[in-house]
Specification:
Shape of chain A: globular
Distance between the termini of chain B: 38 Å
CATH superfamily of the largest domain in chain B: Thiamin diphosphate (ThDP)-binding fold, Pyr/PP domains
CATH class of the largest domain in chain B: Alpha Beta
CATH architecture of chain A: 3-Layer(aba) Sandwich
Largest sheet of chain B: 7 strands, mixed
Order of helices and strands of chain A: HHHEHHHEHEHHEHEH
Number of helices of chain B: 12
Structural class of chain A: alpha/beta
CATH topology of the largest domain in chain B: Rossmann fold
Oligomer: heterodimer
CATH topology of chain A: Rossmann fold
CATH class of chain A: Alpha Beta
Radius of gyration of chain B: 19 Å
Largest sheet of chain A: 5 strands, parallel
Radius of gyration of chain A: 18 Å
Number of strands of chain A: 5
Strand order of the largest sheet of chain B: 2-1-3-4-6-5-10
Strand content of chain B: 15-25%
Distance between the termini of chain A: 18 Å
Strand order of the largest sheet of chain A: 1-2-3-5-4
Largest interface: A-B, 29 and 28 residues
Number of domains of chain A: 1
Number of helices of chain A: 11
Shape of chain B: globular
Chain lengths: ~280, ~300
């Protein structure tokens, strides 16, 4: 899938550049993990390329470089990658990241509405898509070209409220709404495919709710961007992004404890080596 | 009250294109139906889906609209509670949640439709404002306030339809956040809010006949509570009575009792609330209130005994 960017009819994606960015983001997240005891590291690694694609390839910017579309991290526990990208863009400062989860700071383990670049408070699952639908409807009513991008976990697709939002977005034909499901197949307790076999197929469920749906490799920024560029734009659009929880660090991949744990010094070194090695 | 709300909202909606209404499968009464046909884009029905009703209102408010969520009180507040708490209150968004049939107004529909603890629950959420008008005139004033407010989330608790007028001859105008005197008196003072105000007037008449001059205040704004007026009332009258259509925990009775203690008030204080009980009783609103011990006869007897 790595050469899909070349066939894009809208933009050429520099795949190496995207991979380099994502490597840098993983490195930075590992760095931050050494200052705090808990960071939701694996969930952030899981949706890292998704968030990269949305911020760096998809969302519209004005002349000053400010993003005019809206990004909502409905899986609030994945927010560290959002913070790191906002830091890179200068929306958040490195001081903000330094003070993450500290009483003098303003950033916590879930995004808070009102902080720079944060468009909704999330953390409790199953809220983001409903808010996104309201935002998308409001932008339609106002006649703007603003798109709303919402990143969901697959776990929160077990919340009934997510399906209320799916249904309503379909009813209202919210063509300015794009959702991406970070489909790493893990909820807190177990693999969805094992514990909840009726959970799949996912794409067909959303299609039945009048969404346009595409499945992609969720660790390929170019493929994600490509899918979004190529959507028909007549219906709400869903990307089911196949991902690996903890992606990039072998001992974190698919291991539930890394949902919340920060690596110790040894683990940090090992993780860093693996991240650096990935580029070679 | 329902129709007055609808008329008032319609008029405001003609002027302000940000005003929109999101209902969850409730038939729009009177002018809301007209609003729907005149401004179809600003009327949304989410169907039997209250979580998305509140979630969408939050998103709409964040992008500059002024949405009202509108359904039966239990479904406006209890069913989507976490959306009210997180999406509206935690994010502090100017959304009005209109609950129709607060308390036991839906007296024939059973416990699933009784919003017995609505005020208590809304009271406990930070950033929430609660307004509970007692009659159509107060509903008009409260709605006019809600359509222009930028303060944050509001729970506007209404009755149903057909409530009599209690307040249009009041010596004081309706003002947000201020308990309002509806009737003058010098011995006893009754504090109440919402459609159960009818009991306050019946009890006041009874007391008056027994030679006790009785005042009535509408405590229409329950959060923020007008502590100043309540403190003054507690110090000014020999006896203060609270009558409310809400469970005792977390309602006006609790607040007034706490203020009385903190202010070292010397008056006698009697409070009347819904019972801490699901009552399997079907009948008129008055009959339901009576089953909760809130008939005017029972209240009158209790406040008159030593």
């Amino acid at each position: 899938m790595s050469d899909t960017g070349k066939s894009s009819n809208r933009n050429f994606v520099d795949i190496e550049e995207a991979q380099k960015r994502c490597q840098g983001y993983r490195r930075r997240i590992l760095e931050v993990s050494q200052n705090v005891t808990a960071l939701h590291i694996a969930p952030a690694f899981s949706c890292l390329e998704i968030t990269d694609a949305l911020y760096n390839l998809i969302m519209k910017k004005d002349k000053s470089g400010e993003i005019t579309d809206v990004f909502l991290m409905s899986k609030g526990h994945g927010c560290m990658i959002q913070y790191i990208i906002l830091e890179e863009m200068g929306v958040l400062s490195s001081r903000d990241i330094e003070l993450y989860c500290k009483p003098e700071g303003r950033l916590g383990a879930h995004p808070d509405y009102g902080n720079p670049g944060i468009h909704a408070s999330t953390g409790s699952l199953g809220h983001g898509l409903g808010i996104a639908a309201g935002q998308a409807y409001a932008e339609k009513l106002k006649g703007t070209d603003t798109n709303i991008y919402c990143v969901l976990s697959d776990g929160e697709c077990q919340e009934g409220s997510t399906w209320e939002a799916m249904l309503m977005a379909g009813n209202l034909n919210l063509s300015n709404l794009v959702a991406v499901i970070d489909n790493n197949d893990f909820s807190g307790l177990e693999r969805m495919s094992e514990g909840h076999p009726a959970f799949y197929p996912l794409a067909e469920k959303a299609e039945a709710f009048c969404w346009e749906v595409v499945e992609v490799d969720g660790h390929d920024s170019a493929a994600i961007a490509e899918a979004i560029w190529n959507r028909s734009g007549t219906r709400p659009f869903l990307v089911v992004a196949k991902t690996i929880k903890g992606k990039g660090v072998s001992f974190m991949e698919h291991v539930p404890i890394w949902h919340y744990r920060s690596p110790n010094k040894e683990e940090y070194k090992q993780a860093l080596l693996e991240i650096e090695g990935a580029s070679k | 009250m329902r129709n007055t709300f609808a008329d008032t909202f319609y008029k405001a909606g003609v002027e302000d294109p940000r005003l929109s209404i999101v209902v969850a499968d409730i038939s729009p009464a009177g002018s809301i139906e007209k609003f729907r046909s005149d401004f179809p884009d600003r009327f949304l029905n989410t169907g039997v889906s209250e979580q998305i009703m509140i979630g969408m209102c939050a998103g709409m408010a964040q992008r500059g609209l002024r949405p009202f969520a509108y359904t039966i009180a239990t479904f406006a507040l209890f069913r989507p509670y976490e959306m009210v708490r997180d999406d509206l209150c935690y994010q502090n968004l100017p959304v009005t949640v209109v609950g129709i049939g607060g308390g036991v107004t839906y007296s024939t529909l059973g416990g699933t439709h009784h919003a017995m603890e609505d005020v208590a629950i809304a009271n406990a959420i930070p950033n929430m404002t609660i307004i509970a008008p007692c009659d159509p005139a107060e509903t008009k004033a409260a709605t006019e306030w809600c359509v222009t407010q930028e303060r944050g989330p509001v729970y506007l608790r209404l009755g149903k339809a057909g409530e009599p007028d209690f307040s249009s001859s009041s010596p004081e105008l309706w003002e947000f956040g201020k308990a309002r005197k509806l009737r003058d008196g010098s011995d006893v003072c009754i504090l109440s809010y919402g459609p159960i105000m009818k009991k306050a007037f019946e009890v006041a008449e009874g007391l008056q006949q027994n030679g006790k001059s009785t005042a009535i205040y509408s405590v229409h704004t329950l959060k923020p509570l007008d502590r100043k007026t309540i403190s003054r009332v507690l110090n000014e009258y020999k006896q203060v009575i609270v009558i409310e259509e809400c469970v005792s925990v977390g309602g006006l009775s609790d607040s007034v009792t706490r203020i009385a203690w903190e202010e070292k008030a010397g008056c006698r204080l009697d409070t009347f609330t819904l019972k801490d009980e699901f009552i399997h009783c079907y009948g008129s609103h008055d009959e339901l209130l009576a089953a909760h011990g809130l008939s005017s006869e029972e209240i009158l007897q209790k406040v008159s005994s030593d």
